[in-house]
Amino acid sequence: MSKTIALLITLDTKDQEAGFLKAQIESKGHKALLMDIGVIGEPGIGATISRDAVISAGGGLLSELLKNPTREKSNPFVVKGCIDILQKSILADEVHAVIGLGGTQGTSTCCEVMGALPYGFPKIMVSTVASGDTSGFVGIKDITMMFSVSDILRLNPFTRKILTNAAAAACGMAEDETKFVMEKGEKPLIGMSNLGVLTQGTIEAVKYFESKGYEVIVFHAVGSGGRAMEQMMKEGIIGAVFDYAMGEIADDVWSVLRAGGPERLTVAGKLGLPQVLCPGGAEHLGILVPPNEVPAAYKNHKYVFHSPVVFVPRLNVKEIQKVADDICQRLQHTKSKAYFMIPKGGIGRYSKIGGVLEDHESDTAFFDRLKANMPSNIEVIERELYVEDPAFVREAADLLIALIES
Asked: What is the torsional sign of CA 369, 370, 371, 374?
């Protein structure tokens, strides 16, 4: 069956590329929906959806924007219009994938649009800036970034091949009939956070949940993972939470690598979702450094290198108390009953008994501060177990199942 691929392109500067992509898509038996995201220059190729229509859908008037045109003024209307058109088209099963082309400005615009589209919907961004840190563009959505290598400025033998690859990828994704649709059933999808120092415990939890008839989606809690998990809560995809890893909170307090942002650890509580919590990995930080270089501020800390460029210092008593205070403050948003599990045998592989970051004094200060400031509706349960111990993990899983089924 023929599919439709939407193309987000400025048709004044990238008309050749747009025409070539359109031809490639049509050669594979599919349709191209050309959406002009330009504002000023004359389009060099006809659009399926004109810039006038895009801006109008975004609540603006092209004629007004052209009186004193600036990117800052026009871009919100372009983004909003594209989102409105695409969301309606996707809902009506009229568009099945999207490709964007651009440099810094075009990538920002297209990725902002793609970020508003559903998880699982094919999104490809052909970009001149896709070889560096793309986190600012991708955010927490499943956008496929394709590095254009050369500038996207008129066709040549190399750009034809890159655009051919992009068209083939989008068509292949669109042709696939697999749908990411969460059917509302008796058992909600469980979201679970994880870090490398907790992986064996996470595997144990997933197996145990599955044995009880539940499916689990695991998120790597390195900032983007936790935010994506909470976005899926907002979208109704995730209906219960085992928040096993809290390194994102520690790193947010100290503004380093895995920072989860100010909303992290608040969403499940606001939504009233069943949740069980554990401060896995919150006793240390993750800091990007030159290979094997110890930052001066942490030379007196216990530390280990997670990789040559990821430095992991153990938090001392005063530092970890700040993390405990921040966790408790975020959990003030939790209005329903929840459980907070404390594994006194260690909250991560580095800090367990005998581990390179073991620190009983810091652990005790952390746990005492958590217990002193935890909201009254969150029951704190302490166990003389290590965080990855199967008995600890299964008890936490059983508590979450009990909340779900109560």
From this structure: positive
185 pLDDT band (50/70/90 cuts)?
A: low
CA distances from 317 to 189, 295, 361, 362 (A): 37, 19, 7, 5
Is residue 277 within 8 A of residue 345, CB to CB? The reply is no
Read off the tokens for 303.
């530390």
Residue 97: which domain range? Answer: 4-175
Both structure tokens of 82: 């594209």
Q: How far apart are CA 315 and CA 309, in angstroms?
A: 19
Give pLDDT, residue 389: 98
- Using DSSP's 3-state secondary structure scheme, residue 334 falls into coil
Same domain, 335 and 209: yes
**E-strand stretches of 213-370:** 216-220, 240-245, 275-280, 287-288, 303-307, 310-313, 338-343
Confirm whether pTM is higher than 0.85.
Answer: no
| Amino acid in the structure at residue 323 | V
End-to-end Cα distance, the chain: 46
Count of structural domains, the chain: 2
| Statement: residue 181 has pLDDT above 70 | no
- Asked if residue 119 and residue 208 are part of one domain, the reply reads no
336 pLDDT tier (thresholds 50, 70, 90) = very high
Residue type at 334 in one-letter notation: T
The helix (run of H) or strand (run of E) holding residue 89 is helix 71-91
**Contact in structure between 158 and 150 (CB atoms under 8 Å):** yes
- What tens digit of pLDDT does each residue of 301-316 get? 999 999 999 999 999 9
The residues with which 70 forms a beta bridge, in sequence order, are none
Task: Identify the domain boundary among 150, 175, 200.
Answer: 175
**Secondary structure letter of residue 345 according to DSSP:** T
Structure tokens at 40: 């000023």
Instruction: Find out whether 39 and 62 touch, Cβ atoms under 8 Å.
Output: yes
Q: Are residues 339 and 274 in the same domain?
A: yes
Give the SS3 label for residue 318: helix
